[in-house]
Write a structure and sequence with these properties.
The protein is mainly alpha-helical. The longest helix has about 40 residues, at about 270-310. A hairpin with a 6-residue loop joins strand 7 (about 240-245) and strand 8. It is built from 18 helices and eleven strands. The strands form four sheets. The chain has a three-stranded antiparallel β-sheet. It has a three-stranded antiparallel β-sheet with strand order 6-8-7. Strands 10-9-11 form a three-stranded antiparallel β-sheet.
Length: about 425
């Protein structure tokens, strides 16, 4: 499995849409794994950015947009045909049906409308499938009482009496799933609820009481047990065997595990006093740091916000020109900074214009240049439609350069009769 595939599989839908995952004040790009860290200022073209804002800048600069990156993924990942990917790219640019038909050279405007309907139907089906898979994933947590005892999230209702587990049964289950001993690896995590609880209680013994772990440390420890780290970690949190900070920055052994763990020595009064003293010192230190830095950080944040407003988004028309034979591909975008995404798609072999992609593969990247033909002037009229103005600008360049046949990568400029 590729690292990018793994990141996409573990990220939530909202995280995939925004393009990054936030954990323990670290922002990780789901597209390439690039990370930014809170508290560090990132300079870019004379502008200073906070970590989260700079992650958005990175995505725009490196990938064009999350939409473009996802669209460029292999069809085995997206489930989209080449035609559907081409249509989605055109729709994303706000093109009208006739313009889409002209750009892609397929069918007629009515054909494009039919494709729109098919994609909408695919979206509705995907929602149902997503719901089904979520319900399937949590099936054993919400199964009927006749099949398994009810489970309360955070595990406070779970104990051996809840499942009516005898010592002989516990040993039998552990021998079955830990053939090399309970310190060894787990054979599988696909088991019924009762057995999951027995196995997870045993895994919890690998964590030290009153110690905090980072998510990376938890994952490393669970990796020694089984490859399905995320699933096991989620169950341990749901059962109250592990507890964590809301942002996932810190984990510790949960009360459900401490109360039922075997052979765990209770803390002495001296140890408890030392733990309380350490905690109080940490809180005082945090308060002092916040008091000294609060006003400075607030002023710095305002300064960064003002600088971020200076970053301008410009719409316009661009061309991809083959310097070997002079042929061009012309298109428009509402944000010219995303043009680099076209190069990325070509490098990935997934550009939506098949003629351009074929010659890119034949001549190589060095034979092509990407150039801005015109930057759309901003209209102060509040009723002005920038998409309409951009479409007119694109048509003007298409008429001027006529990138058809031997001169370019576009199909017949005349739409087929409906």
């Amino acid at each position: 499995m590729k690292a990018s595939d793994s990141r996409l599989q573990t990220a939530s839908l909202e995280e995939i849409k925004r393009g990054y995952v936030e954990k323990a004040e670290v922002y990780t790009c789901v597209c390439c794994g690039y990370e930014t860290e809170a508290g560090i200022i990132y300079p870019e073209e004379g502008v200073l950015y906070e970590a989260e804002r700079y992650m958005r800048v990175h995505i725009e600069k490196a990938h064009g947009s999350v939409f473009e990156y996802l669209l460029a993924l292999d069809k085995s990942v997206t489930g989209l045909s080449d035609v559907q990917r081409g249509l989605l790219a055109q729709f994303y640019e706000g093109k009208k049906d006739a313009e889409v038909q002209q750009a892609l050279g397929i069918g007629s405007a009515s054909t494009i409308r039919n494709h729109r309907f098919v994609l909408k139907e695919k979206e509705r089906q995907a929602k149902i499938l997503l719901a089904l898979m979520e319900l399937l994933k949590n099936k054993d947590l919400h199964a009927p009482a006749a099949w398994v005892s009810p489970v309360m999230k955070q595990g406070h209702m779970i104990d051996q009496q809840t499942f009516d587990i005898s010592e002989a049964e516990r040993e039998k289950v552990l021998q079955s799933y830990f053939p090399e001993g309970t310190k060894g690896p787990l054979t599988t995590f696909q088991m019924k609820q009762k057995h999951k609880y027995i196995v997870l209680m045993e895994i919890a013994k690998r964590f030290e009481p009153r110690r905090t772990y980072t998510e990376k440390q938890v994952n490393a420890l669970l990796q020694q047990v089984h490859d399905d780290v995320v699933e096991i970690r989620r169950y341990m949190v749901d059962y109250g065997l592990l507890e964590r900070e809301p942002d996932g920055s810190q984990y510790w052994l949960g009360s459900a595990a401490e109360q039922q763990g075997e052979g765990q020595r209770p803390a002495t009064r001296a140890e408890e006093a030392e733990a309380r003293n350490t905690e109080q010192q940490a809180k005082r230190h945090d308060s002092e740091m916040k008091a000294g830095k609060g006003e400075k950080d607030m002023n710095r944040r305002k300064e960064l916000q003002e600088q971020a407003k200076e970053v301008k988004t410009e719409a316009g028309v661009y061309q991809i020109r083959n310097e070997r034979n002079g042929k061009v591909y012309i298109d428009s975008t509402l944000n010219l900074k995303t043009v680099n995404g076209q190069r990325f798609m070509l490098q990935m072999g997934s550009h939506l214009n098949r003629r351009l992609q074929a010659e890119w593969n034949e001549y190589g990247e060095s034979a092509f240049v990407i150039e801005v033909l015109e930057v759309l002037k901003k209209d102060d009229n509040p009723f002005a439609d920038p998409k309409d103005a951009l479409a007119k600008c694109l048509n003007s360049w298409l008429e001027k350069l006529e990138p058809y046949g031997e001169r370019g990568y576009h199909g017949d400029p005349k739409p087929s009769a409906e």
